[in-house]
């Protein structure tokens, strides 16, 4: 398990041995594994009802847990290590993370990208990782969130212990990225400190900006030791640009549509011409084409109408 191999205990077999971290064992009957060292492509899966105790995951090693799998003792993730959660997982011990923890198998670039695309109303099941203590060593927890109305997410639960040092939280919006909404109340709880658990002030931070629709979202620690995602009161910086697009479209219309060369210089169907208006929508240049007949001038009202339709399809707050 230290050079890309796989170790499987089948048919109730028990496997024991020694690795660089000391003795290890896998009990195929109880599903218990102890003292595993996973690195250089080595991996191990903890199935439902199974448990891995005192596990070390080194560079390029992977520890995978199915729903109902559990951890105990000290689980150490080194830089370049991965732990993949495919359901709710409980650790009764400590997690020390310098690597990457993924909810719902977001481990490949394709998987991450597929979740960054707007999903609309596609069903998503969110999961929880519960641990007594979390020590961050610059590692990242990759979580999913819906920002388009339901305001739900995966969740990290600290049960009776502490969250210390630094852990980065990376969120993938699995809702429609064009339809972000303002959060209400305290926001979206993403770290839940239970049973007297505490979290240091700098224990968590966003690894990258989180945006949806017109809103930016920030990570905040409250007096209850929990951490929440909240929408900022101010809209994203791009919104002021969207607000000016109507005026720009009208000016563009006056300059080009009022020119005879742009009205009759190009022949189209039934001797018509086309007027194009470009707008930047959600970071994408969108071109709207207006057919203009041989005896009809494109008007500012036409440009205004097209902009309002295009803008309203994006459901931006400036489309009024």
UniProtKB/TrEMBL annotation:
Q: Name one Pfam family in it.
A: AIDA
Q: Which domain of life is it from?
A: Bacteria
* Protein name, entry field: Pertactin
Tell me where in this chain the Autochaperone domain is found: 120-219
Do you know which CDD domains this protein is assigned to?
Answer: PL2_Passenger_AT
Signal peptide range in chain numbering:
none
Native species: Escherichia coli 4.0967
């Amino acid at each position: 398990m230290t050079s890309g191999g796989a170790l499987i205990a089948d048919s109730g077999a028990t496997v024991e041995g020694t690795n660089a971290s000391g003795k290890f064992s896998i009990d195929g009957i109880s599903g218990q594994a102890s003292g595993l060292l996973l690195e250089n492509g080595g991996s191990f899966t903890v199935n439902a009802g199974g448990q891995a105790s005192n596990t070390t995951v080194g560079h390029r090693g992977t520890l995978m847990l199915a729903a109902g799998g559990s951890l105990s003792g000290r689980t150490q993730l080194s830089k370049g290590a991965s732990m993949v959660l495919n359901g709710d997982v409980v650790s009764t011990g400590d997690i020390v993370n310098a690597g990457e923890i993924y909810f719902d198998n977001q481990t490949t670039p394709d998987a991450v990208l597929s979740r960054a695309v707007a999903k609309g109303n596609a069903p998503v099941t969110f999961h929880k990782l519960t641990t007594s203590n979390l020590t961050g060593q610059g590692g990242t927890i990759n979580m999913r969130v819906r920002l388009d109305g339901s305001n739900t997410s995966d969740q990290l639960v600290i049960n009776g212990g502490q969250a210390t040092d630094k852990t980065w939280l990376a969120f993938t919006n699995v809702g429609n990225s064009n339809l972000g909404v303002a959060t209400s109340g305290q926001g979206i709880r993403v770290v839940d400190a239970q049973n007297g658990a505490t979290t240091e002030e700098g224990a968590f931070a966003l690894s990258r900006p989180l945006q949806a629709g017109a809103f930016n979202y920030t990570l905040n620690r409250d007096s209850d030791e929990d951490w929440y995602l909240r929408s900022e009161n101010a809209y994203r910086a791009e919104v002021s640009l969207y607000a000016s697009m109507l005026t720009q479209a009208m000016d563009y219309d006056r300059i080009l549509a009022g020119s005879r060369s742009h009205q009759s210089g190009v022949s189209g169907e039934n001797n018509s011409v086309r007027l194009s208006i470009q707008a930047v929508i959600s970071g994408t240049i969108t071109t709207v084409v207006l057919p203009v007949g041989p005896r009809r001038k494109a008007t500012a009202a036409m440009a205004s109408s097209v902009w309002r339709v295009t803008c309203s399809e994006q459901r931006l707050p400036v489309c009024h």
